[in-house]
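User: Okay, second chain of the day. Same drill as before: sequence in, structure tokens out.
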Amino acid sequence: MIVTANEIKTKGVSMFDNLLSKFDELIINVRGKDKYVVIDIERYKAFRESELDIAHMKAMQDIKDGNYKTQTAKEHIEELMSEL
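Assistant: Same drill. Structure tokens below.
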């Protein structure tokens, strides 16, 4: 479902409850371009959990493949500072 920014301005955010009961997500269109997505909090939490699961799987694969290095905290901070 696509909603314009103007509709939100005139109807307020209370319209989200009604629309999210009918649609999984709302796309907010600003000046003719899709700009934002609104989803309910439970779906958002599921997305975040999936992102964390994927990040964990990638980290575990990097460890398995040896794509990491060991350094002290001081060395790590120095490396970070040199990249700034």
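The chain has a mean pLDDT of 93.

User: Thanks, on to the next one.
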